[in-house]
Design goal:
The complex is a heterodimer of chains A (263) and B (279). By secondary structure, chain A is an alpha/beta fold. Helix content of chain A is 35%, strand content 24%. Chain A has helices at residues 43-51, 90-102, 111-130, 147-159, 177-194, 205-211, 238-250; strands spanning 5-14, 17-27, 32-37, 58-63, 66-67, 75-78, 165-169, 197-202, 214-219, 227-233. The radius of gyration of chain A is 19 Å and the shape is globular. Chain B has 279 residues and is mainly alpha-helical. Chain B has a single domain (77-272), classed as MetI-like fold. The chains are: A alpha/beta (263), B mainly alpha (279).
Chain lengths: 263, 279
């Protein structure tokens, strides 16, 4: 079976500084993979590579066996900040994707557009309710929503396109602990319901263990660029193991400490 | 001292009084000076009195043409010097403003599409440094002294600023928004127009608002040097006759018009973009 995402021998370097070094990861459809690591270890770079926003200096990224060199509608994206279009209402943010996909710029003045728009809005309202938001929130602008509500809408905005992969970059990092817990439960529920493959980047160890079915840890132990030092299914005791590696990572452990096999 | 306290919160009455104080002081100082000068020289024309200015305003707006004393006030106003000059300057102003919109689109494309950027940016950065008034003689030689040279003066003077402002605003849109657009199935032009332009447009309108004075400055320079109508032409003409009683109302009229254009744009901006919060 072809992996959904293949990260094959990938390295990224910016002006003589290696960020990622020989990364090899395969993600199968339906997995919930969490990438963790300390600040600056290249987690977000890895996500941008999968997104197609950035190209590797060496190696290749394949989605269902094919290379993609720019972001597209099959890879949904929820960043930590600027996740919603500030000039559009919640409803318009969610219907933006279906609208631009079905209607070219000058086809928006046709009766067919108005009919389709009603359908898109109905779907958007349904998604809003599913996200725990009310219909009245649909008329609000993003800056009238709390951080948690904004991220709920951002997830709805991405999911309405039914992407093959949902890429989330520190999506809950700016939220207060209570809201973060709620969002974690929500994304877990959505993952179970939709079966969408999720690649979630975070620096929060417990979040990684709570959310993921698989955890990948990046670290730069010898200064030659970050490598995968842990790639494991989630199991009891993983939190302590990651904690131990995290401590060692701060003290730049030798490469021999790296663990790459699933437990 | 409370007046210079950073956290001071002036009351409503104080705010009202203080904000109108300089207007009142300016008007009072003017009329005190005018009265004093007229006491010394009743024929003084440098600082006209209120009566002289009223006469100047009447002559510029409602004075009937010879043999047409029975015309209605509205007919007299529509044939008046002030209205004809306002129409002439207003036409040039509107054409110049309309020409700023292609400048906005060019700035957007320079900011969004790297190839367009490398093609235009260096040239526009250089073009921006040309002092528009210094090319005025060239414009008169190249385009004659008709409307085109005056409009070209405004275009050369203001459009590079608008292009560069739009370019900078475009580059200021967070990358996340652009990527998000693509992941939602948007095409290149969808991202440029539906994501970026829509976000920066209120700020672009603000930039145009801030450049209104520059537009008027170049318009006035063109009209004063080579024109046979327009508000600035009239001010330059009246200067020769020391017609201060009409020049001052003309200056105030221009300021009022500009204020109204600015206010209209501000209100329009707020109505069209309710999501926009000015920094």
């Amino acid at each position: 079976m072809t992996p959904l995402i293949t990260i094959d021998d990938v390295s990224v370097a910016y002006s003589n500084k290696t960020i990622l070094n020989d990364i090899n990861i395969e993600v199968m459809a339906g997995e919930f993979v969490v990438v963790i690591g300390q600040t600056g270890c290249g987690k977000s770079t890895l996500l941008r590579l999968v997104l197609g926003q950035e190209q590797p200096s060496r190696g290749r990224i394949l989605i269902e066996g094919c290379a993609h060199d720019h972001p597209d509608r099959h890879r949904g994206y929820v960043p930590q900040k600027y996740s919603l279009f500030p000039d559009k209402t919640v409803l318009d943010n969610i219907t933006f994707g279906p609208e631009v996909e079905e209607f070219a710029m000058f086809n928006r003045f046709t009766p067919r557009f108005r009919r389709s728009r009603r359908e898109f809005q109905e779907r958007a309202f349904e998604l809003l309710r599913h996200m725990g938001l009310s219909e009245s929130d649909g008329a609000k602008y993003p800056d009238q929503l709390s951080g948690g509500m904004q991220q709920r809408v951002a997830i709805a905005q991405a999911l309405v396109m039914q992407p093959k992969i949902l890429l989330m970059d520190e999506a809950f990092s700016a939220l207060d602990p209570g809201t973060r817990d709620e969002m974690q439960m929500l994304i877990r529920r959505l993952w179970r319901e939709t079966g969408t493959t999720i690649l979630f980047v975070t620096h929060n160890i417990s979040e990684a263990v709570i959310l993921g079915t698989r955890v990948i840890m990046l670290a730069n132990p010898d200064g030659s660029g970050s490598k995968v030092i842990l790639d494991s299914e989630v199991y009891d005791g993983l939190l302590e193991r990651i904690g131990g590696l995290w401590q060692l990572g701060q003290r730049a452990p030798s490469p021999s400490l790296c663990v790459t096999a699933a437990s | 001292m409370k007046l210079l306290e950073i956290n001071a919160q002036p009351s409503r009455t104080t705010t009202w009084l203080l904000s109108w104080f300089l207007f009142a002081a300016g008007i009072t100082a003017y009329f005190v000076t005018a009265t004093k000068r007229h006491r010394e020289n009743p024929d003084d024309r440098v600082v006209p009195t209120l009566a002289q200015m009223s006469e100047g305003v009447y002559n510029a707006t409602l004075k009937p043409e010879e043999g047409a004393e029975n015309q209605s006030a509205w007919t007299r106003f529509s044939n008046s010097m002030l209205w004809q000059d306002t129409k002439a300057s207003g036409r040039r102003f509107l054409i110049s403003m309309a020409l700023l919109f292609p400048a906005v689109l060019l700035g957007l494309h320079i900011g969004v599409f790297p190839y367009v950027g490398v093609f235009f940016l260096r040239f526009i950065l250089f073009f921006d440094k040309i002092i528009a008034l210094s090319v005025l003689p060239i414009l008169f030689i190249a385009f004659g002294i008709d409307e085109l040279s005056k409009i070209m003066l405004i275009v050369i003077g203001v459009t590079p600023t608008i292009i560069l402002d739009t370019f900078n605003l475009t580059r200021g849109v967070p990358e996340e928004q652009i990527v998000k657009g693509f992941t939602l199935g948007a095409s290149q032009f969808d991202v440029a127009y539906r994501v970026i332009l829509k976000q920066i447009f209120p700020r672009v309108l603000n930039s145009i608002r801030l450049n209104l004075k520059a537009v008027m400055l170049f318009l006035f320079a063109g009209e004063m040097i080579a024109s046979s109508d327009g508000l600035a032409f009239r001010i330059a003409l009246l200067r020769r006759n020391m017609g201060m009683n009409t020049i001052i109302p003309y200056v105030l009229w221009v300021a009022l018009l500009l204020f109204l254009v600015d206010l209209t744009m501000r209100v329009l901006n707020r109505k069209l973009h309710p999501w926009f919060r000015e920094e």
